Amino acid sequence: MEELKISDKQYMNLWLAAVIAISQFECEFDKEGNVVSEDDPDDPGGLTKYGIDQRSHPDVDIKNLTFTCAVKICVDEFYRYNLHKLPFKLCLFLAIMGMNVGYETAY
Fold first, then answer.
1. I need a surface site. Which of 26, 63, 78, 86 has the fewest CB within 10 A?
2. SS3 sequence of the chain
């Protein structure tokens, strides 16, 4: 994966958009309060955690995915779709849409 070549402000915008987008998802928790993956049979993405689904990320261990790794995945994907070049509010809107309907559809 290529190294991100963006300003600190652009990176922070992507990072913040990722955190907010992930927080929009309803997470399931275990008895200790830890976020656990969910496998809804009606979700075509399959196993999902922090909004990161197995279908779109076949090489990611969704079950053991950490919040930090989920944010990194989002930042990398947002960068790939050039969200860092957009005003923050539009970046955030597309970030949330992309996580809900899929990046190809949203962008």
1. 26
2. CCCCCCCHHHHHHHHHHHHHHHHCCCCEECCCCCEECECCCCCCCCCEECCEECCCCCCCCHHHCCHHHHHHHHHHHHHHCCHHHCCHHHHHHHHHHHHHHCHHHHC
Position 6 scores a pLDDT of 65
Inside any domain, residue 1: no
pTM: 0.77
Task: Report the number of distinct structural domains present in the chain.
Answer: 1
Q: pLDDT tens digit string along 6-40? A: 677 777 788 888 888 777 776 778 888 888 888 88
Q: Does residue 3 lie in a domain region? A: no
In a domain? residue 2? no
